[in-house]
Amino acid sequence: MSDLPSAPTSEPTTRYATEDDVPTILALIHELAAYERASSSVLATPASLLATLTFPSNPTAGFARTLLVFPPGAPLACAGMALFFPNYSTWRAAPGIYLEDLYVREAYRGRGYGTRLLRELARETERLGGERLEWSVLRWNEPSLRFYEALGARRLEEWVGMRVEGGALGRLAGGKRGEGAGEGEGGVETVEKGGVS
What we know:
Helix content: 25-40%
Radius of gyration: 19 Å
Oligomer: single chain
Number of strands: 7
Number of helices: 5
């Protein structure tokens, strides 16, 4: 084994986010929301991300993991992220991964960073014994749809996503949360697959 430093790689590198990466994750979330024309919808804070994300230091806490990608030789310049969590298929009786957000900063697009993140998630899915990697895409985001299809993903046109949030969630749960919530303060929402994430 040599004591010489290893040569810098010409490939992007990936690693799981740590607690120290929370400001970067939040910045990426805000950038993604701006791209998706939904900046006012972001409620995440550093404290809420610390409380709900899973980190290598405590792999059983939290609900979702974040994979970060970095340019070759630049381990501090985050190019993008994939935020994901496990899901389950009853028909296949197998686990899988749901990709909540995939985002590559504009300056790094077209250089293989999104492909690298998706390949890592495909490997993670296989490590889990999973059979599916799934995500939603906004219908108007044709460049992303074409990119995903070129990688082998297929559109699930026959499915419609459903969501209950805000006051409607409290009412459905039988509580009083959100009673009298005004319009736009949460409700039952039907989202076609490929719609709002």
